[in-house]
Design brief:
Blueprint (H helix, E strand, L loop, with lengths): L1 H8 L26 E8 L15 H10 L3 E4 L4 H9 L1 H4 L1 H7 L4 H7 L3 H13 L7 H13 L3 H10 L13 H12 L3 H13 L5 E2 L13 H13 L3 H16 L2 H8 L2 H16 L7 H23 L7 E7 L3 H9 L4 E3 L2 H4 L2
Parallel strand pairs: 1-4, 1-5, 2-3, 2-4
Helix pairs in contact: 2-11, 6-8, 7-8, 8-9, 9-11, 13-14, 13-15, 15-16, 16-17
C-alpha cells in the first residue's frame, strides 16, 4: 500500500498487464424467445433528387421492405422531446440548428392547446388502448396531437390511414394543419415517402423518430477555417469515389430507385464513400484537427441514434425493426445495433434483391 502511494506522489503509475475485455456476445446464448431482427436501410436523401422525381418510383423498394414485415419503423427525424430540449437550451444548441432540424409545432399548439410535453403524453395515452379500429375522428385527433408533439412523420401515418374523403379539417386539425398535411403527402423526404407510407401500408400506427443532433453541435471558433479544412479533405477523393458518386447520380436522374438503393446499401459502395468522407477527414492535417472533431461529432450522433433505435423496441423482444437512415450512417448503425444482446442485423442487400 505504501509503495502504491509513493508511485502516486511521484505522478507515476505501475505497469500492470492489461486484462482482456469481457466478451458480451455470449451473454444471450441461453436467451428465451426469438431474436430481434433489425434491418438498417441506407437511403439517399430524396429532397436532393433531381427535378421531376416521382415518389411512385419508390414502389419496388416499398414492396421489398413490406415483405420484411417490420413491427417497428424508425426514421432519421428528430423526436419532439429532443427538439423541445434543444429549444429550451437554444444557447447551447443554437437557434439555427433547432430551426434546421426541428419542425415548428406552434400552429398545432394553437389548434389543439397542447404544448410538446403534454402532446407527447396524450399521444401515448391514445395509443395505449390500441388504435387499429380507430374512427376517422379519432385518427384526425391523433394526427393533430402528433403534430403538436413535433412528430410530423407519425401525423402523416394517421393522415394516410384515413380514407381520402376523411382527410379534412376537424377534431383538432384546422385548415392550416390540413394544408400542411397535404403538402407533406407530396414532399420528397425518405421519412415521409418510405417510412410513413410503409407504416400506413402495413397498418402500423406511428413511426419512431430516432435522429439526434445534441452530440454533434461542435464549438468551432473559426467556422470558415473549419469548413475549408473539411472541404479540402473531401476534395482529395479518389477516382474510384468520384466514379461511384457519378453512378449514384446517374441512377437517380433516371429514377431507377431499386437499383439506386441496391447500390447505396452495398458494402463496396459504403467502403468507398466512407473512405472519401470520414477516412479523409481523419487524415486532415490542420493544427486544430478539424477533421477529427468532425468525425467525433458524427460518431456521437450515431451513438445517440443507435440508442434511440434500441429503445424503440426495448419492450418488444424479438421484434422485426426497420431503420431508414442516410446511407453514410448505415455502417455505424449495423455495427452498434449488432452489438446489442438478442439482436441480429438483417442483410439489406438480400432484402432488396
Amino acid at each position: 500500500m505504501g509503495k502504491w502511494f509513493a508511485w502516486l506522489s511521484l505522478g507515476l503509475l505501475p505497469s500492470f498487464p492489461v486484462s482482456a475485455q469481457i466478451d458480451l456476445s455470449t451473454l444471450d446464448d441461453g436467451m428465451a424467445g426469438p431474436r430481434a431482427q433489425v434491418l438498417v436501410l441506407g437511403s439517399v436523401h430524396l429532397s436532393s433528387m433531381p427535378e421531376g422525381f416521382r415518389a411512385e418510383s419508390l414502389e419496388p423498394v416499398l414492396d421489398r421492405l413490406a415483405a420484411f414485415k417490420p413491427d417497428v419503423i424508425a426514421i432519421e427525424s428528430m423526436p419532439g422531446e429532443t427538439c423541445d430540449l434543444m429549444r429550451r437550451h437554444a444557447a447551447v444548441y443554437g437557434e439555427d440548428d433547432v430551426d434546421t432540424y426541428c419542425p415548428d409545432p406552434s400552429a398545432a399548439k394553437a389548434a389543439t392547446g397542447l404544448d410538446v410535453p403534454t402532446a407527447i403524453a396524450e399521444a401515448e395515452r391514445l395509443l395505449e388502448g390500441g388504435f387499429d379500429s380507430a374512427t376517422p375522428a379519432q385518427r384526425r385527433r391523433l394526427a393533430a396531437v402528433f403534430l403538436a408533439a413535433g412528430d410530423n412523420d407519425s401525423a402523416l401515418v394517421q393522415w394516410l390511414l384515413l380514407p381520402e374523403a376523411e382527410r379534412r379539417a376537424g377534431d383538432g386539425l384546422d385548415e392550416t394543419l390540413v394544408a400542411a398535411m397535404r403538402k407533406r403527402e407530396r414532399y420528397n423526404n425518405e421519412s415521409y415517402q418510405i417510412g410513413s407510407r410503409l407504416a400506413a401500408r402495413l397498418g402500423l400506427q406511428h413511426v419512431v423518430p430516432s435522429d439526434d443532433h445534441t452530440g454533434d453541435n461542435l464549438r468551432i471558433r473559426d467556422v470558415q477555417a473549419y469548413g475549408s479544412a473539411i472541404q479540402q479533405a473531401w476534395d482529395g477523393a479518389s477516382p474510384e469515389a468520384r466514379a461511384t458518386r457519378e453512378r449514384e447520380i446517374a441512377l437517380g436522374a433516371k429514377g431507377d430507385m431499386l437499383p439506386l438503393y441496391r447500390l447505396v446499401n452495398s458494402p463496396d459502395y459504403l467502403r468507398i464513400a466512407l473512405a472519401a468522407d470520414f477516412g479523409a477527414a481523419m487524415a486532415e492535417p490542420s493544427p486544430e484537427r478539424y477533421g477529427r472533431q468532425y468525425v467525433a461529432g458524427w460518431e456521437a450522433r450515431n451513438l445517440r441514434m443507435a440508442a434511440n433505435v434500441r429503445a424503440a423496441f426495448r419492450e418488444r423482444p424479438g421484434a422485426r425493426v426497420l431503420f431508414i437512415v442516410g446511407a453514410s450512417h448505415k455502417p455505424w448503425m449495423d455495427a452498434l445495433l449488432g452489438q446489442m444482446l438478442g439482436v441480429d442485423i438483417v442483410d439489406a442487400e438480400r432484402i432488396l434483391e
